[in-house]
Amino acid sequence: MSLTPDPRELRARAWADLRMGVSVVLHSEGRAVLALAGETLKPARLSVVAGMAEAVLAITARRAETLRAVPYDGDIARIALPGNADAHWVRAVADPADDLRMPMKGPFRVLRDGDAVLHRLALTLCKEARLLPAAVVAPVVPGFGPAEGLTVLDAADLRVPVVMDEVVSARVPLSVSEAGRLHVFRPEDGSEEHYAVEIGTPPRDQPVLARLHSACFTGDLLGSLKCDCGPQLRGALAQMGAEGAGVLLYLNQEGRGIGLANKMRAYALQDQGFDTVEANHRLGFEDDERDFRIGAELLRRLGFSATRLMTNNPAKVAMMENCGIAVTERVPLKVGETPQNAGYLATKAAKSGHLL
Predict the structure, then answer these.
(1) What confidence tier does 352 reach under pLDDT thresholds 50, 70, 90?
(2) Percentage of residues in the chain with pLDDT exceeding 70?
(3) How do strand 24-28 and strand 151-154 relate by DSSP bridges?
(4) What is the helix (H) or strand (E) element at residue 268, kind and residue range?
(5) Chain Cα centroid distance, residue 163
(6) What is the pLDDT of residue 356?
(7) 3-state secondary structure of 148
């Protein structure tokens, strides 16, 4: 085996680089670009990139809609960097925190010609690094990068499935059941670990009572009243304990897959009067950025092919079935409504199709 990092390892390195404000090089079919995350952009590095021809700030169509910038590329928009662009300008375009205080940010010159494949990849990497989906991108000559010590990624090499390895499992007596066992799964791409809490010894040849629960630091640990996550977590475990068997899949996809920092940004926007979906869109994210295929893979790795799924979200049912896990029953989980989260739950029902 070569000591050279493989594409998955380079992708994980790129996440760390972008979070630190270091540029990465992306290339595809003879084209190459330099990319930096807008959120962590350092002024000195921006001054170098801004002097390059065709330097742009790539943002998602969701963010472009808020800024009244036409996303000619469909799902993204490439905004030409103006001559006076500085790190403050980039952050103001990328981050909606001050949109209401300073709504006029244009006019923008949005590119409509050329290939946006690498710009799209830059935004994907920003999302995977749990940063705001905005990237400063500029063309460079193919071969640029190694001499400067930069991480170089080939777009074609990144179309590989993520493999999960079970690192360890151990007995963990729980308040709902002394017959608890925690399984830790680690993706080979260096992303977050995910966990499976097994209650009892569910038979592998029968549908298992299961829940896909996305991590919620504020709800699960702090008892936040803004969501129903904590009560859902404890309610699901309690029902599994009462039945004597079940599997709770604890997926590290905080804030519907946007990360804790971005979730707090969404909370701040909700305090300005936007609902949870509108807040995500203003940040540049979709309604829900989670990947429920992870849950299906973990169930399969544990030996299950069918489930009684505890959820109010039809999208989870559809994704499990699309991934080959039969859902024999949808088990409702209606707990945790408070005066503080009534609007949030209403939005999930009206805009995200949750059955509440």
Answers:
(1) low
(2) 98
(3) parallel
(4) helix 260-271
(5) 18
(6) 60
(7) helix
**DSSP secondary structure, 304-329, as one string:** -SEEEEE-S-HHHHHHHHHTT-EEEE
Is 249:210 a contact under the CB 8 Å cutoff? yes
The confidence score (pLDDT) of residue 336 equals 63
At which residue do the structure tokens 């295929």 appear? 293
Three-class SS state of 92: helix
| pTM of the model as a whole | 0.93
Euclidean distance between the first and the last CA atom of the chain, given in angstroms as a whole number: 52
Predicted pLDDT at 4: 87
Helix, strand, coil content of the chain in percent (nearest 5): 35, 25, 40
SS3 164: strand
List the alpha helices (DSSP H) in 117-248: 117-128, 229-243
Q: Catalogue the active-site residues.
A: 288, 290
Residues 138, 141, 146, 152, CA torsion sign: positive
Taking each helix axis from N to C end, the angle separating 260-271 and 276-283, rounded to the nearest 10 degrees, works out to 120
Sheet holding 134-140, edge to edge: 110-111, 76-80, 56-60, 134-140, 31-37, 24-28, 151-154
CA angle 283, 92, 141 (to 5 degrees): 90
Residue 1 has pLDDT above 70, yes or no: no
Summarize pLDDT for 161-186 with one digit per residue, the tens. 778 899 999 999 999 999 999 999 99
